[in-house]
Amino acid sequence: MARPLGTYTIRIRGRLGETALSAFPSMTFELKDGETVLTGFLEDRPALFGVLAQIEALDLELVEVREVKSPDSRTPGAGDDVADPAYAASMNLTTFLGSKPIKRMGYGAMQLAGPGVFGPPRDPSAARAVLRRAVELGVDHIDTSQYYGPDVVNDLIREALHPYPENLKLVSKVGARRDRAGGWHPALRPHELREGVEANLRSLRVDRIDLVNLRLVGARDPTGTSLEDQLGALENLRREGKLDLIGLSNVDQGRVRRALDLVDVAEIQNLYSIIDRRDDELIAFAGERGIAFVPFFPLAGGPAQFAAQTSIAQVADKHGATPAQIALAWSLARYERMLLIPGTSSVAHLEENMSAAEIELDNADLVALSHVAGPGSSAQ
Q1: CA–CA dist 63, 368 (Å, integer)
Q2: Pair 39, 74: CB distance under 8 Å
Q3: How far apart are CA 300 and CA 305, in angstroms?
Q4: Where are the domains of the chain?
Q5: CB 267 within 8 A of CB 247
Q6: Which of 102, 175, 280, 364 can bridge 97 by disulfide, Cβ–Cβ 3.0-4.6 Å?
Q7: Active site residue 148
């Protein structure tokens, strides 16, 4: 669990009415000099993000966030009337996947295949070097799938890392297949899901996969298969010892709720990033239930799009980091069970991504980054 943050005052431009104030039931308020000042204890970073998200949703103008008192004597300024607002709270770099401890920075292997995630890479030896370097840097979970290639990425992982380090967790997904031209097609019937798991076991040369994600397609399954039958197939495989945990990918909150009535869900893997926050509510839902959240494309948009955001660029300059590193650091600060799997086929880029975990964003950074605009965001 993340270390408690402490008591905060949050200044908002203007005088909030009764309806707006009711959105912050855990905080007291006073009206002062044309501003509303909220004061309350925020137990962790998700709580702070929740308040900031509510302010943004109500289209309020945030003026300042300031820590007043910290419960942790290690906090700079503890015991003073006002602690240093530039203090960066410690961030856990490990969390849990189900009941398993796991490091929050992992590696997504999809980009190791050829163009279009189809066929072999131009330089297979370079791809294997990336995998070995990832493990050297402390990565303890790799995200992959048999349909990346197909078989290509799993073969590279096996060639580079088998026999696997004892602490390495392999996460895969099923629900799709490839045709001879590289096209993508759903493979969501129970027998296809079983075949997908068996294909991953075979190509990775393991007896059990640590977690298998069921990747769904759109609001309605084109195969007409029920979610109950799909998860039932994976649960049967779990009971047979062929997989340990079940996750969901490309899902909305309604489907997650239905799934939780059927099986234990260890992770949700969806599109999410600092510039695409459409799943904010789903992350809050996951947090209430201790479910890991894994953005499958945490750097969606690419370096140029992050650099074009003034707030990201300014925070990057402050920390001597790249805009992409700030995007990753923000995601880690967003939720204590957020796991990142940025992918790359370059050792240098891998090292840059991994070093993002060393960046501790302070409260001023988080306020600045709360204004980053993108799909699903009301920031201006």
Answers
A1: 10
A2: no
A3: 9
A4: 6-69, 94-369
A5: yes
A6: 102
A7: yes
pLDDT band at residue 127 using 50, 70 and 90 as cut-offs: very high
Q: Which CATH number fits domain 6-69: 3.30.70.260, 3.40.640.10, 3.30.230.80, 3.90.1150.10?
A: 3.30.70.260
322's tokens: 């790249």
pLDDT of 70 higher than 50: no
Structure tokens at 191: 């027998």
CATH number of 94-369: 3.20.20.100
Give the integer Cα–Cα distance in Å for 189 and 183. 18
**What pLDDT digit, counting tens, does each position of 202-239 carry?**
999 999 999 999 999 766 677 789 999 999 999 999 99
> Other CB atoms closer than 10 Å to residue 122's CB: what's the count?
10
pLDDT tens column, 342-362: 999 999 999 999 999 999 999
The one catalytic residue among 8, 87, 147, 148: 148
